[in-house]
Amino acid sequence: MKKILVLLIGLMLVGCGSKQIENNVSVIVPSGIPLLAVGNLIGTKNVTIEDVNNSSLLVAAMTSKSHDIIVAPLNLGAKAFIEGGSDYQLAGILTFGNTYVITRKTHGLASVSDLSGKSLMAYGQNSTPDIVLKAALAAGSVMANISYQASVNLVLPFFLTNTSDPDDESNCDYPFILAAEPVISALEINYGLELNILDLQDVLESEIARIPQAGVFVNPDSAHPADIDVFLELLQENTEELDDDPDAYAVLIVEKHSYFSNLTAETIARAIPRSHIDYVAVSGDESFLADYFALLNEHNPGILGGSVPEEGFYR
Predict the structure, then answer these.
(1) What CATH number is attached to the domain comprising 193?
(2) Is residue 253 part of a domain?
(3) Does the pTM exceed 0.85?
(4) Percent of residues in the chain assigned helix, strand, coil, to nearest 5
C-alpha cells in the first residue's frame, strides 16, 4: 500500500512539473476584464505580466516585438497583421461579448426595439463595441439617437448625474448607455442601482454565435515556445476556475493588483459571469471568427480595409 501511495505521489509531482515555466514569459495585457482574466497568474514563477491602459501601447508592443504574449482586441491584432505592422499570431480568444446596453428599472429594455427613438450614450465610436451596437440596432431595424464618449468610464457621468441620489434622473439626458463589465457590476454594488441589462451578444446570436473581443497573440520569434505553450495551458485552466467559482476566484486575486482591490472582491465576483471570459484556442476555422470579420467589414470596412487575415495569422 505504501509503495502504491509513493508511486501515486510521484506521478502527481511529474504532472505538476510538466506545467512549470522554465524561462521567463513576458505578457502585456490591457487593464479591465482581460487583466482580471489573467489575475491569478500574477506572481507565477517566470511569468511577467504588465498591464496598460492605452491600446497604443499594445500596438507598440506588437511593432517592437517586446513581449512573448500580447493580449489585445482582436480587431487591433488583425489590423496590425494585415497592414504588415505585426507578425504576432493568434493563439486563442480570451474574452467574448462584453457589450451591453443598460438602463434603470424605470425604463423598459426587454429587447433592442425598446431603444427605438431613445437617446443613448455610447463609447469608442467605430470600435468593436460601437459596431456591435450598430449591428444590433440594424438587426432590429431600430433607429436610436447615439452620442459618443471615448471610453466607458467617460460615459458614466452622463448616466449617473447625481451620485448623492443615484436614482435621480432629473438631469439625465441619456437614460440608456452602452456599457461593459466591470462597470455594470460597480454601478449595481457601489450605487445600489437596479438595472435592466440587454446583452448585445444575445441580440446578434442569429448572425454570430459568439463575439470575440480580446485575443491572445504570440510572438512567433520567441526563444521559448514550449514555455508559451505551458502558459496557455495555465491560462485555460485559470479561466475554467474563475467560471466555475467566481466568488473563490475573486478572493484569490483581490490582493494581487491594485486594480482588483479597488474593484473589491464582491464586484469582481458579480462581474465574472457577464464578462464571458473563456480561453478558446483557435485555428482559423471557427465560424465565429469569420462572422466577426464579416461584421467588421460590413459596418466599418476601414478597420481591416475589407480584408480578412489569412495565412500566417493563426498559430
Answers:
(1) 3.40.190.10
(2) yes
(3) yes
(4) 45, 20, 35
What's the rounded Cα separation, in Å, for the pair 77 and 213? 11
Domain that holds residue 55: 25-97+211-313
**DSSP letters along 22-62, please?**
-S-EEEEEETTHHHHHTGGGTT-TTEEEEEES-HHHHHHHH
CA distances from residue 251 to 36, 51, 57, 265 in whole angstroms, order as listed: 12, 20, 30, 6
Per-residue pLDDT of the chain (315 residues; tens, 9 = 90+): 544 444 444 444 434 445 799 999 999 999 999 999 999 999 999 999 999 999 999 999 999 999 999 999 999 999 999 999 999 999 999 999 999 999 999 999 999 999 999 999 999 998 899 999 999 999 999 999 999 999 999 999 999 999 999 999 999 999 999 999 999 999 999 999 999 999 999 999 999 999 999 999 999 999 999 999 999 999 999 999 999 999 999 999 999 999 999 999 999 999 999 999 999 999 999 999 999 999 999 999 999 999 999 889 999
Q: How many CB atoms lie within 10 A of CB 193?
A: 18
Phi, psi angle pair for 138, to nearest 5°: -65, -35
Task: Look at residue 10 and tell me if it is in a domain.
Answer: no
